[in-house]
Design goal:
single chain; mainly alpha
Length: 127
């Protein structure tokens, strides 16, 4: 067999190889090279980020409602009857002692507010 016969003639391809090629023009049995594609804008990743944003909005709204309710309970109790001197002094000390920088939007400020509201409610006399 000559070199031309092995290669498949002057054109470089044999009839049997041409028959093996699929519609995509590649040899049957071989895999196409993997092509990395960027996710489409608005795809599952964007939907996941939107879900996270909604969860954050919901969590902050519920947190604010809970702490606001606790502070409202303290205000209502203070308006209904004057607290004892000891209770009033303890509440005033707690309120003066809290260090907040709300402009920075830090989580530790929210934790401080949460703790303060719970402590104030804890100082209220039992009904």
């Amino acid at each position: 067999m000559t070199k031309k016969q092995r290669v498949g003639g002057a054109r470089g391809g044999s009839a049997s190889r041409t028959a093996q090629r699929g519609a995509a023009g590649r040899l049957a049995g071989r895999r196409a090279p993997t092509v990395r594609r960027r996710p489409a804008p608005g795809g599952p990743l964007a939907a996941g980020v939107l879900d996270l944003k909604r969860a954050l909005d919901q969590a902050t709204a519920r947190f604010a409602a809970r702490v606001t309710g606790q502070l409202g309970e303290v205000l209502h109790a203070l308006e209904a009857e004057a607290p004892s001197r000891r209770t009033a002094s303890a509440m005033a000390t707690l309120i003066r002692g809290v260090k907040l920088k709300p402009d920075k939007g830090r989580l530790k400020d929210l934790a401080r507010l949460h703790d303060l509201a719970e402590e104030l409610v804890g100082l209220l006399p039992d009904r």
